[in-house]
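Hi W., the pyrazine-2-carboxylic acid complex you wanted:
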Amino acid sequence: MRINNSQVALLLVDVQNDFLPGGALAVKEGDRILPVIQKLQGQFSRILATQDFHPQDHESFAANHSGKTPGEVIDLHGFSQVLWPVHCVQGTWGAAFSEQLQTASWEAIFQKGKNKSVDSYSGFFDNARRGDTGLYSYLHQAGIRTLVVCGLALDYCVKFTALDAQELGFETYVITDATRAVNLHSQDGEKALEELKHAGVKLMESTQVLAYV
Ligand code: VGL
Ligand code: ZN
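Structure:
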């Protein structure tokens, strides 16, 4: 069975090599979501994706601040910024989508994190909410009203993308078995799920998709 409702789209967040085992910012068990996403892709007629896509000199990289290490938090132009290992640099293997994904049927890809001065966890806006990726206007013009969100990482890009989607008025779901957290602090993934629920985002497992959406 397949969801043919054109108002519904699957949104794959940052399923890129650097967030998978072997990558620069590997999310534990990140590869476990790949078969789940593969199955989900067969169930949706509309599929969109985001791509973390940084320049080499991006200011979210610890390596671009002398004496700083990944995991440290700094003030970056007035915003609190976690420093990351160099990851998802434009044109590198790490920025590419997993080879285990079927990308041919994706309708559109929205790149984020291209401005070196500001990070961009949400697939809609940068963290300062100055720039946007075009995702909102695309969804609006395409008549999409329901977003089913999954990918990496639950406590960063999936969370902020889903919170923005909900706030922007989309009926928003997160597929709990098709995401994993970075867990810089051990409870971050659990906290993210609580925040999402509290904001009105619906959580479900991949096996429930056809029954609920
Ligand atoms: C992400 C940290 C830095 C993510 C991206 O995709 O969740 N996390 N850049
Ligand atoms: Zn990033």
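The beta strands are 8-13, 47-52, 73-76, 79-82, 108-112, 146-152, 171-180, 202-204.

W.
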